[in-house]
């Protein structure tokens, strides 16, 4: 497994198996569905990775995904977090 050296707000790609897809298949399950998701890294622990693909500007992310690390196959950094310049009015 490719583990993460990214920091919060880096843009990452996560490839993971989605065992919930067993419930939505009409045909007999052949195994978990492999999924790819891209977003801003919010949190990574030994148990989960949480990413967001839409973010509030003054609050926490409101659209995203929390993936159990047991389902993760690969994580890679796509872009490092950029420092934002704040302009005073």
Question: Could you please describe the fold and organization of this structure?
Answer:
The chain has 89 residues and is an all-beta fold. It is built from no helices and 5 strands. A 5-stranded antiparallel β-sheet has the order 4-3-2-1-5, with no helix packed on it. β3 and β4 form a beta hairpin.
What brief labels describe this structure?
89 residues, elongated, mainly beta, 5-stranded antiparallel sheet
Instruction: Bin the strand percentage.
Output: over 45%
Question: Could you give the order of the helices and strands?
Answer: EEEEE
Number of H/I helices = 0
The largest pleated sheet is described as:
5 strands, antiparallel
Radius of gyration: 15 Å
Counted beta strands: 5
Query: Given the helix and strand composition, which structural class is it?
Result: mainly beta
Could you name the ranges where pLDDT drops below 50 across 5 or more consecutive residues?
Answer: none
Strand order of the largest sheet: 4-3-2-1-5
**End-to-end separation:** 47 Å
Overall spatial form: elongated
Mean pLDDT: 78
Helix content: under 10%
